[in-house]
TrEMBL record:
PANTHER family: DIMETHYL SULFOXIDE REDUCTASE TRANSCRIPTIONAL ACTIVATOR
Annotated organism of origin: Natrialba swarupiae
Keyword hit for Cell wall biogenesis/degradation: no
Gene3D superfamilies associated with the record: 3.30.450.40, 3.40.50.2300, Winged helix-like DNA-binding domain superfamily/Winged helix DNA-binding domain
Name the UniProt record assigns to this protein: Response regulator
SUPFAM superfamilies recorded: CheY-like, GAF domain-like, Sigma3 and sigma4 domains of RNA polymerase sigma factors
Positions carrying 4-aspartylphosphate: 68
One GO-annotated biological process of the protein: phosphorelay signal transduction system
Pfam families reported for this sequence: BAT, GAF_2, HTH_10, Response_reg
Keyword presence, Phosphoprotein: yes
Domain spans labelled Response regulatory: 17-133
Keyword terms, alphabetized: Kinase, Phosphoprotein, Transcription, Transcription regulation, Transferase
Molecular function, one GO term: kinase activity
Length: 538
């Protein structure tokens, strides 16, 4: 009997299927017993020839293949070719009766995972190698699944134009690609009733659990519990002592074994809950639970930042012009620190996750050195990349730079009011600010908010007009884009991302927005695709 310590080997919650191929039938049989004893959850199938090994591999899906080098009808390398053709990542351990440097070198070149000499450590060593390579392969595949899942959700965020569609596509993704039997997203009304916003899988199960015939959610369902507790909950439905039609009975009827609920929230605000159910196969391990929690945060962030263009029912947006004459506004103070003939033009304002504002600014009538000195003099303004020089983009007589604004500013008040900064121009001792607000009710609220910053603000224009002027025609072209796609494409264009050679890289843009390079690239590609579709297809 082997003396391998199971405590020192990785543990497995699901079966570890091993295909063991060796023409020495006695060795194969005894080694199979030892592997099943030493490796947790191991199930070993044996074959005693190359042909037999190929036949067994064709009808099984082993987690690991262990094969002798010398077989009666071939070598282990022939089986390796069969395995690699079907699964390039399947762990393959080549064993030999005695060490051979030539064979070991060839095994490395051909992509063998491990090379083991039968008598160097015996079954203990082989059990350790099997457990370790399977654990490593499963970890790698879990990471790849996690990466693919995040990429898929990111793709949904960057290509979906409304919340309902996003939730529906996301639920379908969980069911079709991530082994869930059922998934749903719900919100809670003021009267406590849970409203299903989107679902995939077995809808009849949801109706039974959430309403149970008496309009009362089953309090034992993990999703309902997670919504009440505002924290993730994982549970295997247990029998109900007083309700034969409760969660346990219904889950048994539908074949569900485990369920989980995850709050959909961001920055302390809860928007709803994500519920998922597993019938067989995978379990809710730490990695799966962590990924679900991240999904809840991501969906919450999408809701929180108003990623999607929302209809305002019958109301139309209002465009307002405001004149600011107070020097405490950071960009107006910056203009006053520049030569008198200078002019500042703000093309875009974006709020980052840390609440700093990212402003894409063009400056006329000054030099880069003057601009650098002026930025350093003004509190509340920093260069976007954190360096000591402004990221200048020469376009004619303009300098383009991306700046951070901190604290309360007129721009932050516009964004707080769910408004959009269309343009801001500083020159002649004033700043003209043009914004778009959701409706007329937002106008007085913004005026009060601007006054609270100490700015001397005067409304210069206010209109609600469905006809498209020049700037509105641009908005019409950009309408299919989400807010983040529009922000990304604007900053990329004005900072020379599309020039050759590029003035700004995707990495620099990502740093300015406070997101990953992958995220900014997704936004740009999605925006380009939508704009081209509008031009070429419509």
């Amino acid at each position: 009997m082997s003396d391998a310590s199971s405590d020192s080997l990785p543990s497995f919650e699901t079966p570890v299927d091993v295909l063991l191929v060796d023409d020495d039938e006695a060795w194969a049989r005894s080694t199979a017993r030892l592997l099943e004893h030493d490796v947790e959850a191991a199930r070993v199938e044996t074959a005693t020839s190359l042909a037999g090994g190929q036949d067994r591999y064709a009808v099984t899906d082993p987690d690991c293949v262990v094969c002798d080098y010398q077989l009666g009808d071939g070598t282990g390398f022939s089986l390796l070719e069969t395995v690699r053709e079907a699964d390039p990542d399947c762990p393959f351990i080549l064993v030999t009766g005695r060490g051979d440097e030539h064979v070991a070198s060839k095994a490395t070149r051909k992509g063998v995972t491990e090379y083991v000499v039968k008598h160097d450590g015996g079954a203990d060593l082989l059990a350790t190698r099997v457990a370790n390579v399977v654990d490593s392969a499963r970890t790698q595949r879990a990471l790849e699944r996690e990466r693919d899942a995040k990429n898929a959700l990111l793709e949904l965020l960057t290509t979906t134009s409304d919340e309902t569609t996003l939730c529906q596509e996301f639920c379908s993704l969980l069911v079709e690609a991530h082994d869930y039997a059922c998934a749903w997203v719900g919100t809670e009304r003021e009267d406590g009733e849970i409203v299903i916003q989107a679902s995939a899988g077995l809808d009849g199960f949801l109706e039974t659990i959430l309403h149970g015939g008496d309009s009362a959610p089953d309090p034992t369902d993990p999703a309902v519990t997670a919504l009440d507790a505002d924290e993730p909950v994982v549970r295997s439905p247990a029998p109900s002592a007083d309700d034969e039609s409760g969660l346990h009975a219904v889950a048994t009827d539908y074949g569900f074994e485990t369920a989980a609920g995850v709050p959909i929230r961001y920055d302390g605000v809860r928007f709803g809950v994500l519920g998922v159910y597993i019938s067989d196969g995978p379990t809710f391990d730490d990695q799966r639970c962590r990924l679900l929690a991240e999904f809840g945060e991501t969906l919450g962030y999408a809701f929180h930042t108003a990623e999607f263009k929302r209809s305002l029912l019958s109301e139309q947006p209002v465009r307002m012009g405001v004149e600011l004459t107070d020097g405490s506004a950071p960009l107006l103070a910056l203009w006053r620190a520049l030569p008198s003939e200078s002019r500042l033009l703000v093309r875009s304002v974006v709020r980052r996750r840390d609440d700093d504002l990212l402003c894409l600014t063009a400056v006329e009538g000054t030099t880069e050195s003057d601009l650098v000195d002026a930025v350093r003099e003004i509190d509340g303004i920093t260069v976007a990349d954190g360096g000591t020089s402004v990221q200048s983009r020469g376009r004619g007589d303009q300098l383009h730079c991306a700046l951070f604004l901190t604290g309360e500013t007129p721009f932050s008040k516009v964004l707080d009011a769910d408004g959009t900064v269309l343009e801001a121009a500083a020159g002649g001792n004033t700043m003209e600010l043009h914004v778009q607000l959701p409706n007329h009710e937002s106008v007085s609220a913004l005026e009060t908010a601007l006054e609270s910053t100490g700015a001397d603000a005067t409304i210069t224009s206010l209109r609600q007009d469905p006809r498209l002027d020049a700037s509105e025609r641009i908005d019409h072209v950009l309408e299919p884009l989400t807010d983040k796609q529009e922000d990304a494409i604007r900053h990329a264009y004005y900072q020379g991302f599309f020039e050759h050679p590029r003035d700004t890289t995707a990495t620099e843009l990502a740093e300015q927005f406070g997101v990953t390079r992958q995220t900014i690239t997704h936004h740009l590609r999605a925006a380009e695709r939508k704009l081209l579709h509008g031009l070429l297809e419509d």
